[in-house]
């Protein structure tokens, strides 16, 4: 469900004391002993991953490439992550606030000025939504990709993050806030419902709305919250209940949680919203919040890999992580009993297992804020064990698979590319764990707060 071009092929009153006692009991049952904090490694991971977004964005338009070093179109979700990454850069003193504000304003002005409409070409979007992929230079629709609801949502989440962060009185920061407002308020979320109770995954000018809809727990929590919070094109409050009615709660690998196989579905919304201590009506019945749900999903993913039912090379308790990522592809097949895939939504849950031996560092990196005690040792071990084949100029490359054996006797496939939508969770969630800066920034955003309240969330920081 993460890249709709690929997604369509893949698918389709608890008290505070009760909450904290539940978390403490679960943590005591699953968390290993504390490990030393590798500050130098985390500092370098932050800087190098940030450099992906700072170095590779289009200098005249701020668009982020879908991947590098392969030649690439722009990914609007990656552009959203890039906008948020500049906040990290300022806070870490990699760049000045003025440099970040200038880059942000360039990006937003470019997005605002792009042509939109129902034409199949020569435009960047329609009804406030943007096409999934855009030409890196012109910003126009790439080939015949869909007008993507989730990718627009992730772009808008990034736009709202800089709107709330750049709150100064100077002309540049005021322009940022004004253009961010115009872009967000222009998205016709109600149109994307297509008369249904749940939102469509996208639309094509050639044949209308896509049949696939956002239901079942996945990365679309942020999408619904943005749509609910809109004062111009809001969707009905009942949409949230319809969304949660399709959840699949089950016990898997010793953890009880709302299941979704690939870890990105447990990460993307949490990059922007701190769900710890706030709950909607559904989670109140379960006695946990969505933060704890993602923590349990992370532990379950690790447990599956440690069990390694597929017998893949290199899996263990410190070498795990299944999520959507690149893969070696069938052209690299060396085991007749395994179908090695290219880009795919790998994952493990009670109702979904997709595993071909390919591990993605973003699985552990994007879950670091939930379970640092198991994610940090894994990231450290990945770099130590695989060296520059996996960790190089911009931090972790997208994926690797040690079950691939080549004719020349070498073992292991390593991706040559970094992917923007996988770099973002590593950088942002690492910083959320260290300083909570993105979470703190987004708590100030009135649209996010309104969306959460309309969905029925209460408690914690939201009630303060």
From TrEMBL:
Glycoamylase-like domain boundaries: 213-445
Tree of life domain: Bacteria
InterPro entries: Glycoamylase-like_cons_dom, UCP028431
Coiled-coil ranges (or none): none
Signal peptide range: 1-27
Organism phylogeny: Bacteria, Pseudomonadati, Bacteroidota, Cytophagia, Cytophagales
Name listed for the protein in its UniProt record: Tat pathway signal protein
Keywords: Signal
Organism: Chryseolinea soli
Pfam family, one: Glycoamylase
């Amino acid at each position: 469900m993460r890249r709709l071009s690929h997604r369509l092929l893949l698918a389709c009153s608890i008290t505070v004391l009760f909450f904290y006692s539940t978390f403490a009991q679960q943590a005591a049952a699953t968390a290993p002993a504390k490990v030393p904090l590798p500050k130098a490694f985390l500092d370098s991971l932050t800087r190098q991953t940030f450099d992906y977004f700072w170095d590779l964005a289009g200098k005249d338009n701020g668009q982020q490439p879908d991947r590098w070093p392969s030649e690439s179109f722009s990914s609007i979700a990656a552009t959203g992550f890039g906008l948020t990454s500049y906040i990290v850069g300022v806070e870490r003193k990699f760049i000045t606030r003025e440099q970040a504000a200038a880059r942000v304003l360039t990006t937003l002005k470019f997005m605002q000025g792009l042509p939109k409409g129902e034409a199949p070409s020569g435009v960047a979007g329609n009804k406030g939504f943007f096409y999934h992929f855009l030409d890196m230079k012109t910003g126009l629709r790439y080939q015949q990709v869909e007008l993507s609801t989730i990718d627009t949502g992730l772009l808008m989440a990034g736009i709202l993050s800089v709107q709330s962060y750049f709150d100064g009185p100077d002309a540049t920061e005021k322009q940022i806030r004004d253009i961010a407002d115009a872009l967000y308020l222009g998205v016709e979320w109600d149109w994307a419902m297509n008369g249904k109770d749940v939102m469509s995954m996208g639309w094509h000018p050639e044949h209308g709305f896509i049949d696939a809809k956002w239901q079942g727990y996945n990365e679309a929590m942020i999408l619904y919250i943005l749509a609910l919070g809109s004062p111009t094109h809001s969707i009905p409050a009942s949409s949230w209940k319809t969304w949660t009615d399709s959840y699949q709660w089950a016990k898997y690998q010793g953890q009880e949680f709302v299941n979704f196989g690939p870890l990105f579905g447990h990460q993307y919304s949490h990059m922007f919203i701190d769900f710890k201590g706030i709950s909607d009506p559904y989670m109140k019945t379960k006695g946990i919040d969505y933060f704890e749900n993602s923590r349990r999903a992370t532990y379950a993913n690790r447990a599956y890999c440690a069990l390694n039912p597929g017998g893949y090379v290199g899996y263990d308790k410190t070498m795990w992580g299944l999520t959507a990522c690149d893969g070696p592809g069938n052209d690299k097949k060396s085991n007749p009993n395994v179908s090695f895939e290219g880009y795919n939504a790998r994952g493990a849950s009670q109702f979904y297992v997709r595993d071909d031996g390919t591990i993605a560092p973003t699985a552990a990196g994007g879950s670091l804020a939930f379970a640092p005690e198991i994610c940090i040792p894994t990231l450290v071990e990945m770099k130590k064990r695989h060296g520059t084949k996996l960790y190089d100029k911009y931090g972790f490359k997208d994926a690797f698979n040690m079950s691939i054996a080549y004719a020349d006797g070498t073992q292991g496939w390593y991706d040559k590319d970094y992917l923007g939508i996988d770099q973002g969770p590593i950088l942002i969630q690492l910083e959320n764990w260290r300083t909570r800066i993105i979470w703190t920034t987004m708590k100030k955003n009135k649209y996010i707060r309104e969306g959460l309240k309309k969905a029925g969330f209460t408690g914690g920081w939201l009630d303060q």
